[in-house]
Every structure is written in C-alpha cells, then in structure tokens.
Amino acid sequence: MKMLKTIILIGLTVSGLWAGPERWEKDISRLEESARKNPPPKGGLLFVGSSSIRLWDLKSAFPERNVINCGFGGSEVEDSVYYADRLVIPHEPRIVFLYAGDNDIGGGKSAERVVADYRRFVKTIHTALPQTQIVFLPIKPSLARWEKWPEMNEANQTIKKLSEENPLLHFLDTARPSLAKGGKPDPALFQKDGLHLNAKGYAVWNKVVRDWLATLKDVAPPSGE
Questions:
Q1: pLDDT tens figures, 66-103
Q2: Are 132 and 96 in contact (CB under 8 A)?
Q3: Mean pLDDT of the residues in the chain
Q4: Residue 68: helix, strand or coil by DSSP?
Q5: Which residues share a beta bridge with 72?
Q6: How far apart (Å, rounded) are the C-alpha atoms in residues 29 and 73?
Q7: What is the pTM of this model?
Q8: CA–CA separation, 31 and 17 (whole Å)
Q9: Which domain holds residue 112?
Q10: What domain count does the chain have?
C-alpha cells in the first residue's frame, strides 16, 4: 500500500496534478544543500516566500548584514508553513521576512485564507523560536493582478492589524510606495510581465527595509557601516 501511494504521488507530481507543498521538494532540497555547503551564521535576517523573495538580490541590497534568501518558486503562504522546519527554524534567525499571499489570491484563495495561513506561519515559528521577530511584506499591487488588488489589500490590512497587536510582529509598507500618483501600480517598477519587480522596484523595497532596520538597536550592522 505504501509503495502504491508513493507511485501515485510521483505520477501526480510529474503530470502537474499534485498542487500541494510537496511540489517544491526539489527547490527546498537545493536550498538545504546550499546551506550545508555554506552554513550561514545563526541570528541572521532570513527572507522566505515566493519568487519576489527568490529574485531579490539581498546580498547586494544589504551587504553589511547577514541575510539568508530562502525564496522558492511561485510558493504560497502554506508552503512556507510546511517547510518552516527545514528552511527557517534550523537557521535560528533573529528576524524572518515573509513575502507570500500574492500567488494565493492570484490563484483564487480568499483574504481570509491568507490571513489564516499567516497565523499558522507565526505559530509555527514562535513555537520553535519564541523571540524571533516576524516581518510581513505586504502583497504588492501589480499590473498583472490589479483586478485582485481589493482582496489582496484586505489581507494586507488584516495582517497589519495583527502586527499592531503583537510586539514581535511587524508590517512594512512596501505596497503603497509601488503606486503611481493615479493610485495604480507604477509600470516603471515592474518587469515586462507586469508581475515581478525590476531593479527600480526592488530599490523601493530596499529602502523600506533598510530604514526599518536602522531603527532596531538589537540588529545593528557591524561597526563601520
């Protein structure tokens, strides 16, 4: 029976019908292997989530800090929950930055589901690492998914409220600076697909994160910055 289940799982994965977190197994294994070869110091800043994290050149953006990029594929919040014990917890980060929810709502999930999964993510991290700070980077307003923005913004605002109620949770507004004067996404910040950020878009995110980090005494960069 166990063998049969394994064969079915492999078949579903190959055919693309399996939509669970297991579909990212290869990506997760690559990240684990990279960490084994070059173990990052404990207590760093860990970024996890979907391709907006994976494509972010964190080393160049924050050269003076110990940053770990654990972004993978077109992942959703539940995927980061599922792999937290392999991607996040072993590194014992001082701060975890999460960007997810974009693909969730883009794929038809509700704001309520995103918030529920975020709560699960927080519980998972804080059960193992009770003093770790968690930063939610809000779902970005994009050209490609502009029709989904009301639902996305609902999730953002609910998570923002949650963050205001817990000193270990934070909400950094990287979404509002991505809007042009007319209130719609600024095309200058996106790649041709209208979904992923370009260098100018990441420059906006870099500034928001850098300004926030500068306010934290317990994550001061090495002397000489």
A1: 999 999 989 999 999 999 999 999 999 999 999 999 99
A2: yes
A3: 91
A4: strand
A5: none
A6: 13
A7: 0.89
A8: 24
A9: 23-210
A10: 1
